[in-house]
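Standup notes, protein team

Yesterday: finished cleaning the Paenibacillus phoenicis set.
Today: Probable membrane transporter protein structure.
Blockers: none.

Input for Probable membrane transporter protein:
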Amino acid sequence: MELSVLILLGVIVIFVAGFTQGLTSFGFALIATPILGQIIPLQQTVPIIVILSLCTNGIVFAGCYKHADIRKIWLLILSSLLAAPLGTYLLLFLSADILKLATGVVIVLVAALQLAGKTFPIKRDRLAYLPVGAASGLLNGSISMSGPPVALFLSNQGVGKETFRANISVYGIFLNIMTILTYLYGGLLTPETLHYTAWFVPSMLVGVFVGIRALKKLNEQRFKRIALWLIAASGVWTIIGVLMG
């Protein structure tokens, strides 16, 4: 594939992923990674997505930082960071396909229940952030699926869209920074990777800001349904990937 065509396809994919992130505050990697990974080697795709995800999370957070509940979110971040290294050990006992299939099924079922109006709010939600963060960290360390557990929990608790966006964005920022440091240590941030990243930054910025603008037209209920459909789609996509892999 010619470089110009590759860049054009990548720009389109990153724009769509950026729009989704701007609209819902998550989903960038969900959309960009499987598609971009088909045209750029995966060892380059993943660092590109993580760097751009850090940028998108930062932009989203800058617009809603006043709504962040740091007293609760730090528990989520801490438990996630502590559990992430343990996620790699899960693969010693269970295959990645089994973990992905089980996670995908649970995500689809929980998202479907919430779409049907069935929620189970937890009164002592501050303590609940610990197991949710741990689950997210374990999944991130094993199969790189950290977002859905957090998004489902915030949706279940019925938090407003701005608090939802602020909390999940600051969580993503910490996770992205830790991952980038790991890549830097492992020598994955090559000049070619950074070159591709630079090409994709403009479309990422346009996509995010268009998504943020579109968000203003969504009320709380519509925002929640779009977020849940995106979460359900991530579960379905994961199941299909395992079955076809």
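Follow-up from PR in the comments: The chain has a mean pLDDT of 88.
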